[in-house]
Amino acid sequence: MTGQDTSDPEKASAPPPRVDGGLQGWLTVLGGWLMQFSTFGYVYSFGVFQGNPHVALDYYTRVYLTKNTPSDIGWIGGVTFMLACGLGLVSGKLFDMGYFYVTQVAGAALYIFCIFMLSLAKQDQFYQIFLSQGVGMGLAIGLTLVPTLGVIVHHFLRTNRALATGIALSGGGCGGIVFPIREHFRIFKLLLKHSFAYTVRASGYVVIGCMALSLLLMRAKPLPATPSGTVQPKALSFFKEIPFVLHVISYSSFLTLSGVYFPIFFMQLFAVQHKIDNDLAFYSLAIINAASVFGRICGNYLSDVFGAFTILVPTAIITASTIWALLGVHDRGSLVVVSIFYGIFSGAAFSLIAAATASLAKSPREIGCYNSMRNGLTFAIGGIALLISGPIQGALVGTTFTWTRAVAYSAVRTLRLIC
């Protein structure tokens, strides 16, 4: 006799209670952070190429792609964001089917390949940059984004779910700090001495190390067995839920994402055109991304306490207000203030989309089993908005750099989150 009651075979064979987090869970968060650092961090530094004040003021616009307009160049970032989000429907489905490592390895390999293909792009060959940076990197990020968020959710089904997601997504903001500053010194000091190819390859080596470590750290956590007879829902069935439809179409996806990223693409160029200090104009992008780290983590922490939608609405109002405030930027101080406030609240707004989507699930089991499909749908529709936003904003700015129209369009679109 051991004193243990084994009279009930079901109790004796029952698995131990599921524990959220733990060492493996937080290491997975770190791996997700590194993946976001390598992917979205690079994308968030797009303004370095579109508007670098130290190299002929705009490296793509005035040096490397002189035959193309700002609207043309806007398609590079727009397509990257569109594919990064739009492919979530496919990668989310693959993740739910158990192909997490397949999507991560394939996405990482494609992303690294595209960085080195970008380094081979020739001057004034728009299609080469568009295919490698716009299409290729976008597809690669699309393979990794939703599965990265999904595997983190598996480790935090009941507690700290939004916080863990926000910490991982803050990697994109940190990458948006490091890559612009790193590219600044490379371009300013080495580009004329070496080449555009040297600059891009130098960043590629950093990405290789970060992605390799990310793949080693992230681990999928098995979910509890699905009861017999359970039928996996089809993607279109989620559109029968009115809250989900409103969330996707208006609250957090299409209308909002078509405007919210205007400062990411054009802040540096805006500052340079308004004759604000060139050094500070360059670092405005790093300031935005640094502030977004704070916003992503704090916004998601507050959503765990008060609810995702409760935090999302005021966040959108303040984000839209900071975009409007661009029209009042006229000196160093105002540029820094607007950059900080925009970074905090836009970072929170983007990272809260995943938390808001998860909050629509009916049970923790649904979050674990099918939430990646929900996220995939949300990001896929948002990807369409991101595709058209950059070119529209670039066309509104035009070759005469008329900023009022683009700012008004972007701010109003962002405000549609609360309508």
Tell me what you see in this structure.
With 419 residues, this protein is mainly alpha-helical. It has one domain (20-221, 234-418): Growth Hormone, Chain: A, CATH 1.20.1250.20. 75% of the residues lie in helices and 0% in strands. The protein contains 19 helices and no strands. It has helices at 9-13, 22-38, 40-43, 46-50, 59-64, 70-86, 88-96, 100-118, 126-155, 161-191, 196-217, 242-251, 254-257, 262-273, 278-306, 308-325, 332-359, 364-397, 403-415. It is globular. Mean pLDDT is 80; it is low at 1-15, 50-57 and 185-192.
List the keywords.
single chain, 419 residues, mainly alpha, Growth Hormone, Chain: A, 0% strand, globular, disordered N terminus, transmembrane
Secondary structure: elements and pairs:
Blueprint: H1 9-13, H2 22-38, H3 40-43, H4 46-50, H5 59-64, H6 70-86, H7 88-96, H8 100-118, H9 126-155, H10 161-191, H11 196-217, H12 242-251, H13 254-257, H14 262-273, H15 278-306, H16 308-325, H17 332-359, H18 364-397, H19 403-415
Helix pairs in contact: 2-9, 2-10, 2-11, 6-9, 6-18, 7-9, 7-18, 8-9, 8-11, 9-10, 9-18, 10-11, 10-15, 10-17, 14-15, 15-16, 15-17, 16-17, 16-19, 17-18, 18-19
Please state the second-level CATH architecture. Up-down Bundle
The level-1 CATH class = Mainly Alpha
The name of the CATH superfamily reads MFS general substrate transporter like domains
Q: Can you tell me the residue ranges where pLDDT is under 50 for at least 5 consecutive residues?
A: 1-15, 50-57, 185-192
Task: Write down the overall mean pLDDT.
Answer: 80
The helical percent reads over 70%
In CATH terms, what is the fold-level topology?
Growth Hormone, Chain: A
Strand residues, percent: under 5%
Largest sheet properties: none
Number of separate strands: 0
- What is the terminal separation in angstroms? 67 Å
Main location: membrane
Pfam family, one: MFS_1
Organism: Collybia nuda
Family: Belongs to the major facilitator superfamily. Monocarboxylate porter (TC 2.A.1.13) family.
